[in-house]
């Protein structure tokens, strides 16, 4: 049974859809200097425009790595600021204010005023930090920008153009080489 008899045996629209699906599933990399990127308006018409498109993708991938490093830096700064706000009194020690009021001869006034014995509380596992207007909208904006840039890079790779694919890999390498030490261990 050949393909034409199979098509004739089926209804027209159903057979056409099945053939389109089979041809669309074949995904191979190709090399072309006139592959559209993001829209039909962005189609390189010569080798210079194609090189410019590849340079754009290298810069976009490098920007993604910079955004990941920025997010890691901001997260570390926010966590440090939060830990600097956490103090508790040490059990078994009277605060200086109570010792001062009970024994005025042993009064100690420091540059910070009356002091108490305190220690910084260390992180002891998974905990939810409080929602803060000064932190969470910035975090959400950074995450949204990172996702958007990442999806733009993904769409460029989905064109299956070898030059675009290698440009994204080159930009990722360049960004990691320059800024990778600033990224958190969890980032990709």
Automatic annotation (TrEMBL):
- Where found? Membrane
Entry GO MF terms:
copper ion transmembrane transporter activity
Q: Sorted alphabetically, which InterPro entries does this protein's record hold?
A: Cop_transporter
Q: How does it sit in the membrane?
A: Multi-pass membrane protein
What are the record keywords, sorted? Copper, Copper transport, Ion transport, Membrane, Transmembrane, Transmembrane helix, Transport
GO cellular component terms, A-Z: plasma membrane
Residue ranges annotated as transmembrane are: 47-68, 164-182
Q: Which Pfam families does this entry report, sorted A to Z?
A: Ctr (PF04145)
The UniProt family comment states:
Belongs to the copper transporter (Ctr) (TC 1.A.56) family. SLC31A subfamily.
Write the protein's name: Copper transport protein
Q: Lineage of this protein's species?
A: Eukaryota, Fungi, Dikarya, Ascomycota, Pezizomycotina
């Amino acid at each position: 049974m050949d393909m034409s008899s199979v098509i004739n045996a089926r209804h027209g629209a159903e057979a056409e859809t099945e053939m389109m699906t089979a041809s669309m599933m074949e995904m191979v990399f190709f090399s072309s200097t006139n592959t559209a990127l993001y829209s039909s308006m962005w189609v390189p018409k010569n080798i210079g425009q194609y090189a410019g498109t590849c340079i754009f993708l290298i810069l976009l991938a490098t920007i993604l790595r910079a955004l990941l490093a920025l997010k890691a830096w901001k997260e570390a700064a926010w966590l440090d600021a939060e830990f600097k706000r956490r103090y508790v009194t040490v059990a078994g020690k009277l605060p200086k204010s109570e010792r001062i009021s009970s024994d005025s001869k042993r009064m100690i006034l420091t540059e910070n005023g009356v002091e108490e014995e305190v220690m910084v509380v260390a992180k002891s596992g998974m905990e939810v930090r409080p929602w803060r207007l000064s932190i969470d909208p910035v975090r959400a904006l950074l995450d949204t920008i990172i996702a958007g840039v990442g999806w733009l890079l993904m769409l460029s790779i989905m064109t299956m153009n070898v030059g675009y694919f290698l440009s994204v890999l080159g930009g990722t390498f360049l960004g990691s080489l320059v800024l990778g030490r600033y990224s958190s261990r969890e980032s990709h």
